[in-house]
Amino acid sequence: MIDLRPRRPWESDEAAQFRDMVRRFLLAEAVPRDAAWRAQKFVDRDFWLQAGELGLLCPGISDDYGGGGGDFALDAIVSEELSYAGITSFQQLIHGGIVAPYILHYGTEDQRQRWLPKMASGEMIGAIAMTEPGGGSDLQAVRTTAQREGGSYVLNGAKTFITNGIVADLVIVAARTGPEPGARGLSLIVVETADLPGFRRGRNLAKIGMHGSDTAELFFDEVRVPAENRLGEVEGQGFVQMMQQLPQERLGVAVGAQAMMERAVEITVEYARTRSAFGKVLMELQNTRFTLADCLAKAQVSRAFVDRCIADHLAGRLTAADASMAKMWTTDRQCEVIDDCLQLHGGYGFMEEYPIARMYADVRVQRIYGGANEIMKEIIARSLG
Ligand SMILES: Cc1cc2nc3c(=O)[nH]c(=O)nc-3n(C[C@H](O)[C@H](O)[C@H](O)COP(=O)(O)OP(=O)(O)OC[C@H]3O[C@@H](n4cnc5c(N)ncnc54)[C@H](O)[C@@H]3O)c2cc1C
Q1: Residue-level pLDDT at 2
Q2: Can you give the pLDDT at residue 384?
Q3: Positions of the chain with pLDDT under 50
Q4: DSSP class of 93
Q5: Cα(first)–Cα(last) distance of the chain, in Å?
């Protein structure tokens, strides 16, 4: 079997050592606990702290702020190894790959010092709340308000589908700070949730997959936060900030999708080599061979593009269109490959105890969040001129 996990072209020696450490940690500490996380619908805080101690939470953030002092390559490695280990419960991507970079890029020195070290250690778990019950794709239609009153912002509104929302101590909230319609009136406000009057978590939503990752409704009723919790020197920067950061989020989704597609091929080849039907192992049947050949080709071709996008991002030249292509392409291919691989497992493929069954349920959302794939097409099409 071809090695689907060779050393990446963008992986330095230090990054390869980091990968080894992450892999060993996840196998020893996350895999045995995943069933419990899925049953309770969130990851225990002690695991966040453990991951923080090993430097898994903010590996791409400068060590001046408690991070690992690396770059996106380390975040990509955490995403890949989570997928290879079959863990979708632990949303490091949101915490360290999305929330922390907003603070790093748009925060003042004081904000960075206040929040990033605690995020790196796991003392503070991060979430980002853009989506509202009325819509997620159209970010310009955000209705949550953050009204300036003296030295505070007063937040009113509701958010939904928020990853880490049940456990988060720090939530970046997209809110309307000005009367200007559309994009111009939006700002990002950091909300520290501990003992905060008017802030309420709703349901931990019941999903069809990714059961170990909490997904919350959040409510803000006259929630008062200090005005210095706004990200950005002036009001109205929120939309631009989101547009600048979404390519990294989308690449992060693509990286996880790619690795999970590779794992699906690996475990299905293994299964097809041992299962028999009509006096032959499945692997000898032409349909099995052709199906897996298709899956392998999809995974390998897609890998080349994902690696190129990671290298581009590390060099600071990833375009929004390429990030959208990577997100759309890998998540579409991932769903096809995992569906085909499940079929080759027969009835066992429908049994939750089999990893392929859990993958099937877990991956469906990948085409929806991080910007639905239809929105990705809009962004890609814009690059056509
Ligand atoms: C498990 C999970 C975790 C999530 N985590 C977070 C999170 O942490 N933070 C957060 O803010 N959000 C999060 N989301 C929300 C997610 O980003 C949104 O669900 C997504 O952006 C789509 O928004 P929507 O659900 O409101 O669908 P809608 O925007 O109502 O879209 C419905 C359908 O219409 C299509 N559509 C919409 N506009 C267009 C258009 N212009 N052209 C063509 N088709 C269009 C969409 O592609 C989709 O197929 C999460 C969602 C899920 C399910």
Answers
A1: 86
A2: 97
A3: none
A4: I
A5: 43
H helix intervals, 275-351: 286-314, 320-344
- Using CA atoms, how far apart are residues 175 and 320, in angstroms rounded to an integer? 23
Q: Is 144 a pocket residue for ligand 1 (Cβ < 6 Å)?
A: no
Residue 131 CA: nearest ligand 1 atom is: 11
Tokens, residue 357: 């069954």
- According to the model, what pLDDT value does residue 1 have? 79
Instruction: Name, in order, each residue with C-beta under 8 angstroms of 244's C-beta and a sequence gap of 6 or more.
Output: 105
Query: What per-residue confidence (pLDDT) applies to 5?
Result: 96
3-state secondary structure of 332: helix
On whether the CB atoms of residues 174 and 162 are closer than 8 A, the answer is no
- Give pTM, 2 decimals: 0.97
Structure tokens at 1: 């079997």
Can you read off the two tokens belonging to residue 238?
């929120």
Token output for 37 = 């996380």
| Residue 198 backbone phi and psi in degrees, to 5 | 90, -10
- Radius of gyration of the chain measured on its C-alpha atoms: 21
Ligand 1 centre to CA of 140 (Å) is 13
**Ligand 1 atom closest to residue 137's alpha carbon, by position in its atom list:** 29
Please enumerate in sequence order all residues whose Cβ is within 8 A of that of 140, keeping only pairs 6 or more positions apart, or say none: 182, 183, 186, 239
Of 138, 129, 160, give the one whose Cα is nearest residue 375. 138
Angle at CA of residue 42, ends 36 and 44, nearest 5° = 75
| Sign of torsion over alpha carbons 91, 169, 100, 331 | positive
Q: How far apart are CA 184 and CA 186, in angstroms?
A: 6
At residue 311, the pLDDT reads: 98
Q: Where are the alpha helices (DSSP H) in the chain?
A: 13-25, 34-40, 45-53, 72-85, 92, 100-106, 109-121, 238-274, 286-314, 320-344, 355-363, 373-382
Q: Is the CB of 305 under 6 A from ligand 1?
A: no
Structure tokens at 87: 């863990």
Q: 41 C-alpha vs ligand 1 centroid, how far in Å?
A: 21
Ligand 1 pocket, 174 CB below 6 A?
no
Report, as residue numbers or ranges, the catalytic residues: 249
Cβ atoms within 10 Å, residue 24: 12
